[in-house]
Amino acid sequence: MSAPLLLNPGPVTLSARVRAALAQPDLCHREPEFFALQDEIRTRLLGVYGLSNTEWVAVLLGGSGTAAVEAMVASLVPTNSRLLVLENGVYGERIHHIAEIYGVAVEAQHHEWGAALDLAALDARLADATQPGITHVAVIHHETTTGRLNPLAEISRICAGHGVALLADTVSSFGGEVIDFSAGSNTGGLVAAAGTANKCLHGVPGVAFVVVRRAALAQATVRSLYFDLKNWCDKQDAQGTPYTPPVHAFYGLCEALREFAEAGGVAARHARYRALADQVAAGCAHLGIREYLPRSAASAVLRSYHLPDGIGYDALHDALKRAGFVIYAGQGGLAKHIFRISTMGALTAADMERLVQAMAALVAQR
Ligand SMILES: *Cc1c(COP(=O)(O)O)cnc(C)c1O
């Protein structure tokens, strides 16, 4: 039997075209051919959201999505700044942890996993002159823990209203959901978005990136050797690279970005994810399997579902894997209650039809 289709939130099932691109010739990362590849990826990443290359820059680095988030937090919150992290899942809590490791002055606005962010509380905290002033806010755009899409544009406007910079983890939304980079300005709002090759862009793991305002990068600080975003950017701007990059992951991302643009960009990818996710949700509803979040709060990229009565996660996972699909467990305390299905990657409506049929067969046997 062929390898199962991946319904976990990255790495994704590759298209044949991206898979073939991985087998291109071995390449030294100090040769002009590599720098042409690097330049094309950086240009295409800005192109995903139509950003001007005078205001914005895409900085690549070797590592998983967390590497990009870590570089963003370690570099873009200068000393004498104070970071507020909006938490409503695993990844928001991870940013808080990263900031603590680097000794960044940080506080959290904590919410239960899956809860809506309290934007009035954010606005009040940014306005509160009786507490230490907040200079930066960090938020997860798509909290993959539950599939909740946080209102990034609204948060960016609130931050801009207070002259506060916003750093976004867009690791599981970049390319698949709308990101309004213009909701902020040079003096506040969204200044950086961290992403990765192997989620909505359909590349392979190994290369991650931060799309950042050049003005914010100019004020960057250095807290780490490897996660020094400005160093990566300066070297890349000068047709260079500080360290050995994952050359084959670059090949994959470049081809994935070409395919992405040809297929119609963010709008087309979002519509495709949404159609597949709605198809799965409708099939699940028919089997009595309920969505974990209200539909209006959920992303198109990933949806969480309550486990069906009488079927534990392991039984569901194993049966679906035998049928050719890898689903994803809940994290932490949610592990016993939910499962997650992502519709990222080279998937079709026919694939989702087979998935729903496999679930129906399992539910019928119960
Ligand atoms: C996947 C993901 C990450 C990074 O995970 P890695 O395993 O480091 O690639 C970060 N934030 C969010 C929201 C994610 O979904």
State the main characteristics.
alpha/beta, Aspartate Aminotransferase, domain 2, Aspartate Aminotransferase, domain 1, seven-stranded mixed β-sheet, binds pyridoxal-5'-phosphate
Question: How would you sum up this structure in a few lines?
Answer:
The chain has twelve helices and 14 strands.
Describe the structure in your own words.
The chain has 366 residues and is of the alpha/beta class. The protein has two domains: 16-261, Aspartate Aminotransferase, domain 2; 265-364, Aspartate Aminotransferase, domain 1 (Alpha-Beta Complex), CATH 3.90.1150. It contains twelve helices and 14 strands. It has helices at 16-21, 32-48, 65-76, 90-101, 119-127, 152-161, 214-218, 229-237, 247-262, 265-286, 313-322, 349-365, and strands at 5-6, 56-62, 83-87, 106-110, 136-140, 142-143, 148-149, 165-169, 189-196, 207-213, 302-306, 325-326, 328-329, 338-342. Strands 2-10-9-8-5-3-4 form a seven-stranded mixed sheet, with helices on both faces. The longest helix is centred in the last third of the chain and has 22 residues, at 265-286. The protein starts with a strand and ends with a helix. The mean pLDDT is 97. Bound molecules: pyridoxal-5'-phosphate. Residues 9-10, 64-66, 69, 91, 140, 144, 169, 171-172, 196 line the site of pyridoxal-5'-phosphate.
CATH-level-4 superfamily name of the largest domain: Type I PLP-dependent aspartate aminotransferase-like (Major domain)
Instruction: Give me the Rg, rounded.
Output: 21 Å
Q: Name the overall outline.
A: globular
Give the fraction of residues assigned to helices: 25-40%
Q: What is the CA-CA span between the terminal residues?
A: 26 Å
CATH-defined fold name of the largest domain: Aspartate Aminotransferase, domain 2
- What small molecules does this complex bind? pyridoxal-5'-phosphate
SSE run: EHHEHEHEHEEEHEEEHHHHEHEEEH
- Give the total of beta strands: 14
Strand count, sense and barrel status of the largest sheet are: 7 strands, mixed
